[in-house]
């Protein structure tokens, strides 16, 4: 009897279920038991030993489309302002109240898992896992590693205080030299990081670096890669220019974040090293639209334009070359609501099914959760979207998801 009480089941009947790899639908029932998909197929039933029928919730999927829960492979859940510097003097209590809202909204846009590229920590991931916070499951890196004056150093030119230990909620930590980089990487891994993030080029939201600068020496990047690999983790690198991208790939990083200005050599290295590109175009689209309104300074706004135009072209070239690409949004502040607009941008340069793969199977591969996330298949987490229209036929179904999402299911639980 206790099995019946403790077991929860969800059955979706007679839906069009997407096989993401094949890019095709089949009419099937999907059964999940205790948060995992147990069977997919015609007349699928719960496993006989599970005794779940009493507690089953049944959804009629007739005429509906079932796809895996989406994965956004580049977010900052703590970024309630586009001005990262402000996080270093905002109380943790306020940051986390905003974060709870941001996470809840991401989930309701269909993202059942996210990969956080700095800011989120063990506590947030644990709170989500325990159900204290409603939101996507989080793969986090903790603080991003940055050189002095790099993309993770938020001090203004007139400031001479220690770069670390000021405030609680910054996105970066400064570590210079091989030993300090090793220690910082080990410390983030100690605190549960799923991956290590390094800043390998300049960026938009940092006050003193140039977009076209390279950051970290080869020795420092290799040290981070070595420490990550020793712990069976990997390194993600923030990089815009071909020069920065190619150095980071040579040093052994597994994913390039942004990558707007990649070149032919980058494409060759991506394939040779079996690395991932996580392009984040929507953030530039949104920054141009409304960045100033949400705290971006005039100077930062001016940097945006230089990385926007090349972005679509880079994705198109990478797609044609066969580079593995994962969906990333990287939105900040009040711009988070444009998260799904990235699908519409991707749809301009690749088929809809490839845009969907980037937010499901390919992202799961990057997260090293292949078969567990990003698929509707036995053994996977029961993360599913039930849609009233076919996103493979029209990617705007995912871009305008609030108009099409009938049921949002995370770990076998109907969220909405
Ligand atoms: Zn980012």
Spell out the key features of this protein.
TIM Barrel, 13 helices, alpha/beta, disordered N terminus, 5-stranded parallel sheet, globular, binds zinc ion, Urease, subunit C, domain 1
Strand content: 15-25%
Any ligands, ions or cofactors bound here, and which?
A: zinc ion
**Which residues form runs of ≥5 with pLDDT under 50?**
1-5
Helical content stands at 25-40%
H/I helix tally: 13
CATH architecture of the largest domain: Alpha-Beta Barrel
Structural class: alpha/beta
Number of domains: 2
Number of strands: 18
* Rounded average pLDDT: 91
End-to-end Cα distance:
29 Å
Shape, please?
globular
Radius of gyration: 21 Å
Give the CATH level 1 class of the largest domain. Alpha Beta
The CATH H-level superfamily of the largest domain is Metal-dependent hydrolases
CATH topology group of the largest domain: TIM Barrel
Please describe the biggest sheet, giving its number of strands, its sense, and whether it closes into a barrel.
8 strands, mixed
Describe, in plain words, how this protein is organized in 3D.
This protein is an alpha/beta fold. The protein has two domains: 5-69 and 375-414, Urease, subunit C, domain 1 (Roll), CATH 2.30.40.10; 70-339, Alpha-Beta Barrel (TIM Barrel), CATH 3.20.20. It is built from 13 helices and 18 strands. The protein has helices at residues 2-6, 92-108, 122-129, 178-190, 218-230, 242-251, 264-273, 281-290, 298-321, 341-349, 352-358, 361-366, 396-399; strands spanning 9-19, 24-33, 36-41, 56-60, 65-68, 70-75, 111-116, 137-139, 144-146, 172-174, 196-199, 235-241, 255-261, 276-278, 324-325, 384-387, 405-410, 413-414. The strands form four sheets. Strands 1, 2, 3, 4, 5, 16, 17 and 18 form an eight-stranded mixed beta sheet that branches. Strands 11-12-13-14-15 form a five-stranded parallel beta sheet. It has a three-stranded parallel beta sheet with strand order 6-7-8. Strand 17 (405-410) and strand 18 (413-414) form a beta hairpin. It is globular. Mean pLDDT is 91; it is low at 1-5. The protein binds zinc ion.
């Amino acid at each position: 009897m206790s099995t019946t009480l403790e077991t929860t089941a969800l059955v979706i009947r007679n839906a069009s279920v997407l096989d993401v790899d094949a890019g095709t639908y089949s009419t099937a029932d999907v059964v999940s038991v205790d948060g995992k998909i147990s069977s997919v197929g015609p007349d699928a039933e719960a496993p006989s030993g599970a005794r779940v029928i009493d507690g089953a919730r049944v959804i009629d999927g007739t005429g509906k489309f079932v796809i895996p829960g989406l994965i956004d492979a580049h977010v900052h859940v703590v970024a309630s302002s586009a001005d990262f510097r402000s996080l270093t003097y905002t109380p943790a209590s306020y940051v986390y109240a905003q974060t709870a809202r941001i996470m809840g909204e991401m989930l309701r846009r269909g993202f059942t898992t996210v990969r956080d590229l700095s800011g989120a920590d063990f506590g947030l991931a644990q709170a989500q896992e325990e159900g204290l916070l409603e939101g996507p499951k989080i793969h986090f890196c903790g603080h991003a590693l940055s050189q002095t004056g790099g993309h993770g150093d938020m001090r203004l030119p007139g400031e001479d205080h220690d770069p670390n230990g000021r405030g609680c909620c910054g996105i970066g930590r400064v570590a210079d030299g091989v030993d300090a980089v090793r220690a910082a990487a080990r410390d983030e891994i100690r605190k549960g990081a799923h991956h290590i993030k390094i800043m390998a080029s300049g960026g938009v939201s940092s006050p003193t670096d140039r977009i076209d600068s390279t950051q970290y020496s080869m020795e420092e990047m290799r040290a981070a890669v070595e420490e990550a690999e020793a712990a069976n983790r990997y390194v993600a690198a923030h990089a815009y220019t071909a020069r920065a991208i190619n150095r980071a790939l040579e040093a052994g990083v597994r994913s390039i974040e942004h990558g707007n200005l990649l070149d032919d050599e980058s494409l060759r290295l991506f394939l040779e090293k079996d690395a991932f590109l996580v392009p984040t175009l929507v953030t530039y689209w949104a920054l141009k639209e409304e960045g100033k309104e949400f705290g971006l300074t005039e100077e930062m706004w001016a940097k945006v334009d230089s990385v926007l135009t090349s972005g679509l072209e880079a994705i198109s070239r990478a797609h044609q070359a066969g580079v593995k690409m994962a969906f990333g949004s990287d939105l900040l502040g009040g711009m988070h609501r444009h998260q799904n607009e990235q699908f519409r941008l991707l749809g301009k340069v690749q088929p809809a099914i490839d845009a969907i793969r980037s937010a499901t199977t390919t992202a799961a591969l990057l997260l090293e959760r292949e078969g567990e996330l990003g698929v509707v298949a036995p053994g996977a987490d029961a993360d599913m979207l039930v849609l009233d229209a076919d996103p493979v036929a029209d990617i705007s179904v995912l871009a305008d998801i609030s108009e099409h999402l009938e049921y949002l299911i995370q770990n076998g639980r109907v969220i909405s």
